[in-house]
């Protein structure tokens, strides 16, 4: 394991830091990022040093299952945004004794994909349909064949075309379709635009033009002619990072801050999706880099040097905020099953009269994983609480399997559970290997990597690539979109890659784990068993 760190030159004493932060806020030099996540709306302010978070605010919200579709109420978008912003300004006032009246720039990010359809008079035609809906199978299959590229169930074009196939009454009135980030940005600025990364979850992007693929647009317009307007009329304008995307209007300022303190005229960067802000937050926007996010689900983003040679159902093609192609491996199941086992062992410690904090339980168990055999001793673990399309499973059944010859030890058990977190991800990443995609480094983030080194080491083995873990991006996508907002002032002089390398991550502490050859061979053996054992998993779904 190696570490790198560079002095940032920022003030070091608490008083200096507080004074500099206060000055940045009072003078309007700070940048604001807002992200609509699946369970929280977060606001984050950064100052002259983009790496430094000055204040944060948040508001919890939940999706609803209504009419057999997952949705969020539109009025909760605005009440939630106002609550998160109010929480942010309260944090600023507590820390610095001031309330913000202006920012250098603002950025909006949100969950990618989904479907927000509006009439000519800007009326919302049907409730917001989120990325979580899977009713678009027929449309996705037809579009994948027509366009010659994988169209996932959650993409906006799949939602639109499914509505066309189902002859939904609202289709006749559709005049504009956008994502959640695009909708909020539109209401704040009056501009119907979208960052290229978020747009790539609506319709395929041509990396040469950094815009919707013109040939594929022509094909879809031919298919849907007479049923919906041309896509050029329906979809938002596409902008790359650094391009001006409008200014906060008086109406937009009142939507964000009903107290009236916030002044209009603040520039906004192009609105982006959570995948794009995650790439920024992990400095993974250059070819041959990528990031892995591990939580309830797990996904990997890999920036490509060239287009893929074939269509693969395991891979979604999206883009960076600059418009470079990215292969996305998205798995529905992440670390939840591992957490359940940690909870069981934690309860055992408590019952034995030796209670441990959750982090201490993980530290002890993951430490045992390091001591396990490289191939987990022949043990096998599936973390499938939900269905897993990459593995060919419509439903999931968590399983732990061993043979009489397996070596059942705590170390092997925990290594098998960790390997299981990365199993389906590795299946998708092996498809990229087959395409000859090279990786210089993957950046890992998520609570699984809080225990120093262990999950990072196992992921390096699974990917056979160096895995970096850093101490930046503590606020995730909200911080990432704040960084994109701050980049507006530097786009004429620096590329986004150089801005991130030099101005944002130059002083970041980063730990890099190189793949251990023994671990790489051990995981490969485990994955062979994992792939063969999917028949057992499928049988469990059928029987149970």
UniProtKB/TrEMBL annotation:
UniProt keyword annotations, A-Z: Carbohydrate metabolism, Kinase, Transferase, Xylose metabolism
Carbohydrate kinase FGGY N-terminal domain ranges (all copies): 32-255
Name of protein: ATPase
Coiled coil regions in record: none
The keyword Metal-binding is annotated on this UniProt entry: no
Entries under InterPro entries matching the protein: ATPase_NBD, FGGY_C, FGGY_Carb_Kinase, FGGY_N
Domain Carbohydrate kinase FGGY C-terminal: 291-488
Keyword Transferase attributed: yes
Classification via Gene3D superfamilies: 3.30.420.40
Family the entry assigns: Belongs to the FGGY kinase family.
Alphabetical list of Pfam families matching this protein: FGGY_C, FGGY_N
């Amino acid at each position: 394991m190696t570490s790198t760190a560079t002095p940032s030159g920022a003030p070091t004493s608490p008083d200096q830091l507080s004074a500099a932060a206060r000055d940045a806020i009072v003078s309007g030099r700070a940048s604001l990022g807002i992200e609509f996540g699946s369970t929280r709306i977060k606001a984050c302010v950064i100052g002259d040093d983009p790496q430094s978070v000055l204040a944060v605010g948040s508001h919890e919200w939940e999706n609803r299952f209504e009419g057999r579709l997952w949705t969020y109420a539109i009025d909760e978008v605005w009440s939630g945004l106002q609550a998160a912003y109010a929480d942010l300004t309260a944090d600023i006032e507590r820390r610095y004794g001031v309330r913000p009246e202006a920012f250098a720039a603002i950025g909006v990010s949100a969950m990618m994909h989904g479907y927000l359809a509006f009439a000519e008079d800007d009326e919302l035609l049907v409730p917001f349909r989120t990325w979580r809906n899977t009713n678009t199978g027929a449309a996705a299959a037809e579009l994948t064949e027509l366009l010659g590229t994988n169209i996932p169930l959650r993409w906006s074009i799949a939602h639109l075309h499914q509505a066309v196939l189902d002859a939904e009454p609202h289709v006749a009135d559709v005049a504009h379709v956008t994502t959640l980030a695009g909708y909020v940005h539109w209401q704040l600025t009056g501009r119907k635009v979208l960052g290229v990364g978020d747009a790539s979850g609506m319709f395929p992007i041509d990396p040469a033009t950094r815009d919707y693929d013109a040939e594929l647009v022509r094909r879809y317009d031919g298919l849907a002619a007479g049923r919906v307007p041309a896509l050029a009329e329906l979809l938002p304008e596409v902008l790359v990072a650094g391009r001006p995307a409008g200014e906060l209007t008086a109406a937009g300022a009142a939507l964000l801050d009903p107290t009236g303190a916030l002044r209009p005229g603040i520039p906004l960067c192009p609105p982006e999706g959570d995948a794009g802000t995650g790439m920024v937050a992990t400095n993974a926007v250059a070819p041959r880099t990528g990031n892995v996010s591990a939580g309830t689900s797990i996904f990997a983003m890999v920036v490509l040097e060239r287009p893929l040679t074939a269509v693969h159902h395991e891979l979604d093609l999206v883009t960076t905020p600059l418009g470079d192609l990215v292969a996305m491996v998205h798995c529905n199941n992440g670390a939840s099953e591992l957490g359940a086992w940690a909870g069981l062992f934690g309860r055992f410690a408590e019952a034995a009269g030796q209670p441990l904090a959750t982090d201490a339980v993980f530290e002890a168990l993951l430490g045992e994983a390091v001591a396990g055999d490289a191939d987990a001793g022949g043990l096998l673990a599936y973390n499938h609480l939900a269905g897993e399309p990459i593995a060919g499973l419509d439903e999931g059944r968590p399983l732990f399997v061993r043979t009489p010859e397996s070596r059942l030890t705590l170390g092997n058990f925990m290594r098998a559970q960790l390997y299981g977190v990365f199993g389906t991800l590795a299946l998708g990443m092996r498809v990229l290997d087959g395409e000859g995609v090279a990786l210089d480094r993957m950046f890992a983030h998520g609570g699984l990597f809080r225990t120093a080194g262990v999950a990072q080491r196992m992921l390096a083995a699974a990917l056979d690539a160096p895995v970096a873990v850093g101490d930046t991006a503590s606020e995730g996508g909200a911080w990432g979109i704040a960084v994109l907002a701050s980049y507006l002032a530097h786009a004429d002089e620096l590329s986004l890659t150089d801005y991130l390398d030099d101005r944002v991550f130059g002083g970041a502490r980063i730990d890099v784990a190189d793949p251990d050859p023994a671990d790489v061979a051990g995981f490969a053996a485990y994955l062979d068993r994992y792939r063969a054992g999917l028949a057992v998993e499928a049988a469990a779904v059928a029987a149970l």
